Backbone:
């Protein structure tokens, strides 16, 4: 006879780690969706900053969000400014960075 499958963490008597693992799928999808939306927004904004239109960005024009996440919160703005140093319109870069950091906070909150 097959084992009974219980989807309710409390009913299964699972410990914290096991209960969390059972619920992970729902939360991961939300975090993944938020991250994908952020990546798409960044790509769109970089195309505008570099005036690329529909062309692909070159590797030196891309912004690796994982590297931005790895920076301390207070160093992220400087890091992004250094990456986007070749963009002529620095006012647009500053606006982009402000919006990016706000969106990154939202993505982080979505992952919790």
Residues:
């Amino acid at each position: 006879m097959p084992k009974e499958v219980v989807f309710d963490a409390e009913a299964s008597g699972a410990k914290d780690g096991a209960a969390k693992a059972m619920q992970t799928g729902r939360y991961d999808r939300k975090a993944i969706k938020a991250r994908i939306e952020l990546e798409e927004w960044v790509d769109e904004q970089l195309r505008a900053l570099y005036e690329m239109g529909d062309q692909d960005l070159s590797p030196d024009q891309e912004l690796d969000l994982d590297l931005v996440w790895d920076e301390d919160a207070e160093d992220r703005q400087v890091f992004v400014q250094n990456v986007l140093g070749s963009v002529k319109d620095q006012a647009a870069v500053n606006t982009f960075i402000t919006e990016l950091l706000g969106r990154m906070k939202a993505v982080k909150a979505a992952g919790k």
